[in-house]
Amino acid sequence: MAKKSGLSSGKPATVHDQKLQRGAGGELHQLAGGDIPVLTTAQGGPVADDQNTLRIGSRGPALLEDFHFREKIFHFDHERIPERVVHARGYGAHGFFETYESLADYTRADLFQRAGEKTPAFVRFSTVAGSKGSFDLARDVRGFAVKIYTKEGNWDLVGNNIPVFFIQDAIKFPDIIHAVKPEPDRGFPQAQSAHDNFWDFISLTPESMHMIMWVMSDRAIPRSFRFMEGFGVHTFRLLNSKDESTFVKFIWKPKLGLQSVVWNEAVKINGADPDFHRRDLWEAIQSGNFPEWELCVQLFDQDFADSFDFDVLDPTKLIPEELIKPVPIGRLVLDRMPENFFAETEQVAFMTQNVPPGIDFSNDPLLQGRNFSYLDTQLKRLGSPNFTHIPINAPKCPFAHFQQDGHMAMRNPVGRTNYEPNSRGEGPREDPVRGFRSFREEVDGPKVRLRAESFADHYSQARQFFNSQTVPEQKHIAMALTFELSKVEAAPIRERMVAHLLVIDEALGAAVADKLGMDPLPKPADAAVSPRDDLPASPALSVILNGPESFTGRKVGVLVSNGCDAGLLKKLRAAVEKEGATMELVAPKVGGVEASDGSRLPAHHMIDGGPSVLFDAVVLLLSEEGAERLTGEAAARDFVADAFAHCKFIGFTAGAVPLLAKAGVAPDADEGMIALEGASAIPGFIESCRKLRLWAREGSVKL
Ligand code: HDD
Known about the structure:
By secondary structure, this protein is α+β, with helices and mostly antiparallel strands. It is about 25% helix and about 15% strand.
């Protein structure tokens, strides 16, 4: 059967095929007939020749009369829409949200009323600063935008993988984004914060210090969308049927645990596979390994808000999970990729103001500003106020209103009545009981442009975050700051930034200054509120302390050569798959290798195209002869040296030793080097892999 939308019948094209015809230029083209539909113009007119424009003679000028050519080129010329001003590079998937228990005591939101109810959802993950075509592993915040198509309207939880934000007031959003995007005179750097404009703005904006610690941590280089948390950031309200309010913060927790890569690895992944994150999500969903997150809520009342150390309306602060435990209330499963990237992932329009009855906003000034911005941007991007007519944005529940006309209106009211009230009893009317009601908050005060004093402590939670990291993670933060500031040309900016770091943590500031060659140390920044020392470490803030319990969802790269042990490979594959992980073969040629039993093993990658940075752990399954040959290949030596430098577990056969030697890695360097002398060593290797990395090695490796 030919596909409905395309011309491919799946059969190889040959001149003997009845449906092929040789054109005037000798080219082959397929003709309609049988189950192959006729190509038409957008007006439905059948097309006779799609290979040649209409012209006078075979070498003469083209004719304006060629409506088919004009329509085709016209449409092509207008294929692009403006990319998102932020979060331009993203990747989406469909799925569902399943409610665990009724939350009726707290909210009347319909999707939270019935245990076990499934509600369709669409999620788009993104980076923030880079353009649509930028690479996936930039050091950046990741967007985590979820649209849940509830029976009472779409709920968009437009979050990030970081629970706080750079700024406290939406009026600063254009400034922070201008500062991080490519500098306007030169148009670079792309998808990077490592440049003067960004650090100039940041060093003049102390409220960003907490977020900066997150962005300089491994959170900003996640291994996979599947292994990161999502946060609604702001405090929202839940309202029950009596309109009683409970404050809430939303957190998505990945079932497969947290995992990040290291910076040196991120840089190399961007070269080896700029689509690393989208490919990862695509492969997981296409192979039936559906990623899953639990939606957790931190619930609190006004008394807690009043007694908390920080203002719950301040989006640069979080509530430690040790203080208010996140309670799981449902799960999100992504189980289907879009059929068309543009129609769904590109055209999806998320808006913070999309909340169903039972969920309400707080007065967080960032959230209030966002509620304006998201509607505005959709008009620019999608070109019409009718963007809700695009299927990905349309509610999946019944809806009825009197909005009409405008560009690309696909639905208009029918009949004579397009207003209310009307005396004909026609059309929809409001429902004060079912309809959305805002929390009846008493608000009074002068009209001012004033930041609350309760927003003034910019360093305490930055310090708490740093103190909550493991030693390797603290080292990564120092290295990231050093790298980023080393790209800043203006020394005063570097100094101003180090002055802030000295307030957050003296040793951190001093270490970064030392690595930057800054002597003497600048004076610590003046803090409006001195940072506190008494905030306890919060283990929930570390990636390493919240890793997975198994190696499920991870990938092993096996470097193979001719003569490699077929039996061992088979057992290794079985063990990897039993763990819920996947395995890919890397070989000198993509055609594969001949294993010890004479069987042909096709490879997923040739060695140059399958560096070890693409894998969570590696195995060198080599015959001695194969290893000897590979010693001459830089890519093979890098495969080993990088895996070692990135603290990965390395399994190897005896034959692989010459390659290890050439890569400068001792077979007994540490417990992360696992000799696979026989199948009995495989369970030990898999068990080690569950730890993901041997961080103890990092001290001996200069990254
Ligand atoms: Fe935003 C997109 C998340 C602050 C204005 N934002 C956008 C997306 C995410 C976030 C995930 C991509 C949605 C998608 O995939 O289509 N933004 C956040 C978070 C913020 C935040 C978690 C702080 C807590 N954003 C923020 C502010 C403003 C905006 C303060 C403006 C005042 N954001 C936008 C926008 C975008 C957007 C310009 C660009 C494309 C879009 O909305 O649809 O309106």
